[in-house]
Amino acid sequence: MSSNKAIIVQKLGLAQVVDAPLPKLRDNYILIEVRAIALNPADWKHIDYLSLLGNWCGLDYAGVVVEVGSAATKPFKKGDKICGACHGGNTVYLEDGSFAKYITAIGDCQIPIPSNLSFEQASTLGAGMITISQALYKWLQLPLPPAVVSPTLPVLIYGGASATGVLAIQYARLSGCQPIIATSSPSNFEFLTELGADYVFDYHNAEACVKEIREVTGDSLTRVLDCIGVEEICFPAMSTTTDGVYCTVSDRPPGEITNPKIRRERVEGYTACGEPYEMMGHRFEINVHDYELGKAFNEINTKLIEDGKIKTHKISTNEGGAGLEGALAGMQLMREGKVSGRKLVYTID
What are the coiled-coil residue ranges (predicted)? Predict the structure, then answer.
């Protein structure tokens, strides 16, 4: 086994590629040789605002199993191709990050890479699968796919061209929602329609966007997933007569809800890990429901991908450079707001 390198936090706001030990293989974990990683906004935000000295960075990865812990129950074995997510920036266990040559990940939360996906494509799935399981099936209470909803249930995916939005549109379709409404820049309209959106509206003019959504839904919109954090469009589009749920993945401070029919929820993806963790001075205990939901959703998700019913986001490979150094450059592009409509992926040799 070759030496290890990882992106590790040196101080708040600064992470570098450095030599690293092999992470300790805990009983319910898997040791993995990483072949590709994908970037999420949470990666650079953890570095800038939340991490401790020594935190390993990164959520999404795809790679090959090196060793399986004694308590992992999924039937993974050495040499299997695998993908998923780690708890990068975990202040309880500093080595829980995916941006390294060798990593560990919770065995029962990972999935085998379907034969129709490359390492690069598979690396984009991990955090997205967790987010979708909680947003659509915990908070919005959609039926697990495949399903048919009667009467029809409209759903709004705000930020449809984001990594989460691309998956959400497809899962909402498979869960029987209709119509599916998304927002994006006009350049992404055709792509989102191909994924299953019935209507795609330009978000740049907030008043016009709300009007277009209401022309489609009337006053019946009760399910909203906001992948960006733009309450000023989502709230006015929602029903004023029927109870509804607004779910966001954003960490922006919440605004005032003037519509008493709206309940706000937020995805806390790390609860799917089945372990306690700490963030911003708060301790979060084990959430058995989220852990079991995540595992069940992974099984459904694997089959849907294998059957070609779920497509991964459009990827840009090694933008700014290959490997871990390239990933640092990619996170800087994200900080500067220069990434839209694509997922940044980096190959690891």
Answer: none
